[in-house]
Amino acid sequence: MAEIYHHPLFPSPSSSSCSSSSSNDSCCLTSGREIYTLWMKSLVLNGNGCTIYDSNGEVVYRVDNYDQKCCKEVYLMDQGGKTLYKILRKKLRVFGRWAAYRYNDSNGEEKRPRFRVKKACGIVKGSGSFGIKVMGCGGENKASYKIEILKHQSVYRIMDVAGGLVAQVQRKHTVSGVMLGEDVMTLAVEPDTDRLLVMGLVVACCLINH
């Protein structure tokens, strides 16, 4: 049996007031700006993955690949270990592509991916950043979001097709302004945003970036 451990800076997991795995996607829309902490470690001892905490310090999402270092298939789960997204790597030429399949309470895994991500073409060499295209959100086979990754600053920006900011990930600072380690990040999600979609996109970004 896998052993669960907890980071000393964060409290133990507790149940969230919102059912993240509900089949009603409207419950996943943010009513205001929400702040999360991403800890790039698994709660499973010697496991591989990451843990996402809300602003109250409670575990709300996690990725645990246990002892599997291969990242061709990962699962985004809620705090109780219920699968919300399965993210698969599809090999295509150089960079490959990731496809994310949503899980719901009534039908389990959906047959069609909710979104697909791949590195955008025309990346400027030496610029320290690259883009990611997000295809298929909403059922259309066209770009729905774009993601900019500034590698040297450890910043991810998720934007809609019009260039509006949807969410941003960056290194976390303490209240006194001290920057924490590279494995602790802050995720800010803008209002009226599908938070579960953002979580899936962030996990896909981490997979591509690493």
Write structural notes for this entry:
The protein is mainly beta. The protein has one domain (30-209): LURP1-related (Porin). The protein is 7% helix and 38% strand. The chain contains one helix and 13 strands, in the order E-E-E-E-E-E-E-E-E-E-E-E-E-H. It has one helix spanning 195-209; strands spanning 34-39, 49-53, 59-64, 73-78, 83-90, 97-104, 108-109, 115-119, 129-135, 143-150, 155-160, 165-171, 184-189. A twelve-stranded antiparallel β-barrel has the order 1-2-3-4-5-6-8-9-10-11-12-13. Strand 10 and strand 11 form a beta hairpin. The longest helix has 15 residues, at 195-209. The protein is globular and about 45 Å long.
In short:
By secondary structure, this protein is mainly β. It has one helix at 195-209, and strands at residues 34-39, 49-53, 59-64, 73-78, 83-90, 97-104, 108-109, 115-119, 129-135, 143-150, 155-160, 165-171, 184-189.
